Amino acid sequence: MAEIQLRDLWKYYDDVAAVRGINLDIEHNEFIALVGPSGCGKTTTLRMIAGLEDITAGDISVGDRIVNEVAPKDRDIAMVFQNYALYPHMSVFQNMSFGLKLRKTAKEEIERRVNLAAEILNIEELLERRPKQLSGGQRQRVAMGRAIVRDPQVFLFDEPLSNLDAKLRVQMRTEIKKIHQRVKTTVVYVTHDQVEAMTLADRIVVMNEGVIEQVGSPEEMYDAPETLFVAAFIGSPSMNFIPCRVEANNGGLSVRLSDDLTFPVPGDRNDRYGSCVGKEMLFGIRPEHITDKRPHTDPTHHDFTSDVIVLEPMGIDTMVFINIGETEITTRSRPRAVSQVGETMDFTIDMAHMHLIDPETEKVL
Amino acid sequence: MVSVPNVDRAAVAPPPGPFRSRMKKRLGPDIDGYGFLLPATIVMVSLVVYPFCLAVWFSVSDAFVGEPASYVGLENFIYILTEDDIFIETIWNTLLFAFWSVLFKVVLGLSCALLLQRILKLRRFFRGSVLLPFVAPTALSTLGWWLILDPTYSHINWILANVWPFSYFGWGPYNFLGNPTLAMASVIFVNIWRGIPFFIITILAGLMAIPDHLYDAAEIDGASTWRKFYSITLPLLRPVLAIIILFSTIFTLGEFNIIYVLTRGGPMNSTHLFSTYSFTYGILNHEIALGAAVALFLFPILVVIVVFLLRMVRRDTSHEL
Ligand SMILES: Nc1ncnc2c1ncn2[C@@H]1O[C@H](COP(=O)(O)OP(=O)(O)OP(=O)(O)O)[C@@H](O)[C@H]1O
Ligand SMILES: [Mg+2]
Fold first, then answer.
1. Rounded to whole angstroms, how far apart are CA atoms B192 and B213?
2. DSSP bridge pairs for A246
3. Going by CA atoms, what residue is nearest to atom 24 of ligand 1?
């Protein structure tokens, strides 16, 4: 069993706090994605779990033992580095077997495991090559192979796909998912690409400036962000935020987005937002919840009209940029229903997916 | 090999005359390149090739200062090999001197470089100060060592006699430059002292070029400190090591200054190297022919060493860091 627990974990580099008191429980065989902007402490957290970095304060436990003082090699973890860190002077086979050799594994067993991993990763014919003779994607596979052969309790990945081109990245993403389904282990996967996180992870951890903003399943992160940061970070293109005022009208609430645009809040949220009446808030809505006008019966759907500013065709959908008040926002429509730039267009907004954010606390209400 | 792309010059240059086109056929399209080589070639020919050929001629002649020389074949070589015991001793001295010097320079240089890499405080100070033996003129610093090792004024002997805990053991005084074994040890020691900065600096540069993440990966793979050194540092340093061993071996085999200042080949010729012995023959005794023969003896030895080490460098440096 390999649960990982981080308890009030701190890391200072001299007087820079890279990680500030994070708490996290990772379950056995769970795939956790650690996302966040550059410099938020993802790598530092991962390296502390690996044992490559000293802990300033707090505890890390793997299984049921605290490993703060345990050397990396005794933590039963394997790590895949961003730049792969393959040994340049060793063949692929030697690269993959180095860790086993150091653990005095029998020769036949080493060969069996390397061949099995090579088969899983489809790199059987590369075993005699040097890293230099491999393409980026092949190196990436070898780096994963080096981790797989060890059969560790925990896999750590530090942005393993960020050095690959876009197409290969998508392909390897699927491979990683397949491999995890085949080789069940606990995985902590660092990435700054939220699409990667959404597609791969059982649960996502969003970090920002050394603290955890929110932990949850991809769906939770997407549908119910708890902070402005998470709401803005998860989703691509990202959520629109429009300054608004909450108003009371005949028994219900509504949000005023501009002088001539107000929408009623879904009735089941009246209690939630009741205390905000009269306050300046941030209204959040994802692009796909403002579409070209469609017939609807749902009471949460409302129509409005706006001028089209810019069009960005994406193939299956077209992103339509419009102004609401002073704010430029992104909406998402079927290509055939889109007007020309400069013309007006009818839209439907689905208020069931709105978010209301307190600009002072940056919390989603 | 770097190859300069062949720019199509036909559009700008006038059509080549008959002489130019004939040369082009023979020398390849970049005739101008040979022109650029000329200054370097002149310097090399006058300072290296000419003296070398002259030495070869002397070694097969009976040249003596102030007398016309005539060809005598391999007589000089036969003489020094069969009748000159000092020369045979010189061969052994040179090999011994070079072997121990280079060996210690590698081991100590590598150790110091590893230490220096880890030192965090006063890093620049230490890195700068290891260069001192290197930047001081050899003849001058060796004079300092001569004083330190001198039988009468030796600092070492004084320390051994007067400073606790050395005084407790009652060691010394030693006649460092007067005893054949101690004299050889002394010149080797000074040579190591003098040559080690070059090793430290070069190896340090080599160490810095090894990316940290390889050590992280090895750490996760379960490598001990020793194993990391053995399986990562050493193999990745090998090209650097081979090159400096090559250079150092060449220079150590031809060492002159240190021997000449400290012992002049003595006591009883026990520290003569090819260079000092050749100097004794050719300049001090005026037997230019024999001096040249002694000096040339180094040549085949060097060729063997260079070929061997270059092989080692070429093999297996195809990896990138
Ligand atoms: N060795 C170090 N010495 C000093 N500061 C460091 C060191 N490593 C990281 N930091 C600092 O700690 C903070 C977190 O760094 P970390 O590498 O964990 O970020 P990250 O989330 O992995 O970012 P990225 O997505 O760019 O890789 C940064 O502010 C960084 O400048
Ligand atoms: Mg990072």
1. 34
2. A255
3. A38
Residues A49 and A217: beta-carbon distance below 8 Å: no
Please report, for residues A3, A68, B80, B268, B294, the alpha-carbon distance to residue B281 in angstroms, rounded to integers and kept in the order given: 81, 71, 11, 15, 9
Query: B119 and B46, same structural domain?
Result: no
Count of domains observed in chain B = 2
Domain range spanning residue B217? 84-284+297-317
Q: Tell me whether residue A72 is exposed, middle or buried, using C-beta atoms within 10 angstroms of its C-beta: 0 to 12, 13 to 18, 19 or more.
A: buried
CATH class of A4-226: alpha beta
Q: Which of B212, B220, B225, B231 is the mutation pick for testing A, counting most A CBs within 10 A?
A: B220
Q: Which residue of B has its CA nearest to A80?
A: B217
CATH of segment(s) A240-357 = 2.40.50.140
Residue B104 sits in the same domain as residue B249: yes
| CB contact A132 to B (< 8 Å) | yes
Residue nearest to atom 11 of ligand 1 (CA): A18
Q: Contact B217/A81, CB-based, under 8 Å? A: yes
Predicted TM-score (pTM) of the model is: 0.80
Which residue in A51, A73, A85 is closest to B213 by CB distance?
A85
pLDDT tens-place string over residues A246-273? 888 877 888 888 888 889 888 888 888 8
As for the ipTM of the complex, it is 0.82
- Which of A:149-168 have CB within 8 Å of B? 150
User: How far is residue A95's CA from residue A75's CA, in Å, rounded to a whole number?
Assistant: 20
> Is the domain of B48 the same as that of B89?
no
